[in-house]
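<goal> How does this chain fold?
<body> The protein record starts here
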Amino acid sequence: MMELAIQKAQLIDAPVRKLFLSFAVDSHGQVYKLHPSRPPERLTEALGEPVYFHEAGERLVFYTKSRNLAVLSPPARLERYVLESVPDQLTLTGEGFAMSQRHPKKVAASLVKVVGSGYTLEVESPRILSMASVDNNLYALTMTGEVIGLAASGSQLNEFLRIRNLPRGCTRVVAVGDKIAVKCQENIACFDAYTGKALWMQRVSLGSLLAWGNYLVLWEPEETSLELLSVEDGSLQTLSFKPVFTLFTAGGRLYVVQRYVVTALSAGLARENMLLPIPIPENMSVHNVDFYFSVSRWIASCSPTPPSVVVEKVSVKPAEGKHRVYITLSARTPSSNIPISNAEAVVKIGGIEVSSVSDEKGRIVVETELPPGSHSLQVRLRGLTPTESELGVVETVTEHEVDVPEDTRPLGLSVGDFLDDKYSVRELLGEGGFGGVFRALDILLERRVAIKVPHGHFSDYSVLLEEASKLVEVSKRVNRESHVVTEVYDVKLFRVKDLSHREKGEVFAIVMEFVEGGSLRNLLAGSSLTSMERRSIALKLAEKVALLNERKVVHGDLKPENILLTGEKNPILADFYTATLLGRFEKMRKLRKLVFSRLYAPPELINSGIVSEKTDSYSLGVTLIELLTGRAPAPGSIPAPLLEAKTIPDKCKKKLIESLSPDPHERPTTREIYEALQDTPST
């Protein structure tokens, strides 16, 4: 089963009241034409608050409190009428529409008006309860318990049919093909639309009625079944679902919306289940292969997408010839970002096939032996849906590249060692592919410092020197104005002694400012931040990245691991090996050597090695979404939790969504992201 992952999310002027095929109507009565890959096209000004909608095939009619009536039809046709009074009943006909209004002088009568191609006809009838049409024939259910058939003839509406002796309590008439059905208290009666001949009557239990193909669909909100009534012979069958919240038809299919799932029924009653990125959409529609749903003022366009499997971490333990490799994968739905737990995973890498099962957080840990080099990793995942396990399975196949270094000898430094009799090593803070970072004490100045040391096999220290020189230069550019990056205290070849002051040798290291609060990653994983604290960190982080970019510095690998926090939760940027210092008039640069984290890296960096200020816009957007919503977006899709977040204003959501664009020219600058965050409420 796939999820309807959000590909685009567009903001309109007012909350959405109705989605129909490729049209949207907002609460001000503005009509929009929807496009899957570009902003909605507004077709009309505000017509007033919509009161009533009616669908027929590929047309939609609605009227508003301002007495405007609009008829919509593909591809983008809109007909507008101004009514003298608000109608009681409204339906579409073959050439136009029909409506009934209360008779101005007779309490028990209605005036019926039919508007067609070049004509408007009017006739008086008993008070009308419901209306339907077949082609240009109009059928009116009256309060006298009759169905009257009306047809246009010349300049008049003439009665051609009258069905009497209906069961008690009739409330609605529905047209289905060449038949009409009348819904009464406990029964549905079906008649020939042209002769009025009674065809069948069936007892039913559910009240809401929808015409679909050759069926009448009976349902009630939050019930766990639908009744399908064949208009051909009146046969009744019951279909079971999870609690049903709404139904709609499109392209000959019936769509049944349940919590986190939509089921598409074909004419042969075959089912196709798709996961929804939010629990229950306010409105939903389908046009051709494009799916749309709305959340307040947001319209999201979606497409079926398999689960995403991301490589979270690769750690290596040295061994003779081959290394012991531990690969941590994460399996989640693409937009709702819900972990897929208890899923069977088959991982193929280096000619070896390993089976595993995902844990409650969707993580899959694979352990195997691999020689040094680059290895293709293929993951085949199969498991129950993460939201409603009875509805089906999710299945996907993804491929990644995993690099195993030539050598992984231990770090040339240990806890308890001394560097130049000045720095006492106290704690290993973290370890990566290049080396590790230790907390140490500067004995002479009595201050804590961070010491970055490469793995023992590194003999070329140019990488460390390059990072140190970048940090020094960046500090000159930005730290005078605001504390943006970690300060460098020393970088050189240090003499190392152990606790007994015996000589161990030498190690090349960079000594930096120690930031006591740890990384943003640790904070997100280990504590419950309030929404106010998340907003405060996000605002400070965006401001500092904006300042960095304005000084022509691109960090290039922004992610929670590279953002340190002081005790007051002020963010400080670290790990500048990937940084690019652009020239005064330089807009972008193509790198030869790429170092990035795939989840936070934009497509142009991954595919072409291109770095610009918009690189940080993308990475900052991903990081801020994770910080503000608790979940990082999967590559290539927009996270549903962002659209649903009530504490984030639409202006801020819009900039964060734009920051995820695959086209760097469509992304906002980091300064624009910061300015949008300033509008976020502080409580």
User: Anything to note?
Assistant: The chain has a mean pLDDT of 88. The radius of gyration is 33 Å.
